[in-house]
Amino acid sequence: MRLNYGSKVNSHSFLIQGLVLIIFLGIMQVSFYLIGINLT
Questions:
Q1: Where are the transmembrane segments (predicted)?
Q2: Domain span at 16
Q3: Which of 24, 31, 34, 39 is the most exposed place for a label (fewest CB within 10 A)?
């Protein structure tokens, strides 16, 4: 049971890391898009 709980927490933190990465990439894309609009 303890091992099962640990693996569940591990997969949960992995999911959170994935979401953070997706959000970070989205913010980078939007900021580059806004910079491109300001330059032109």
A1: 12-35
A2: 1-40
A3: 39
Per residue in 10-33, pLDDT (tens digit) is 778 888 999 999 999 999 999 999
DSSP characters for 1-40?
A: -HHHHHHHHHHHHHHHHHHHHHHHHHHHHHHHHHHHHHH-
Q: How many domains does the chain have?
A: 1
Cα 1 to Cα 35: distance, rounded to the nearest angstrom: 51
| Residue 39 token pair | 């330059």
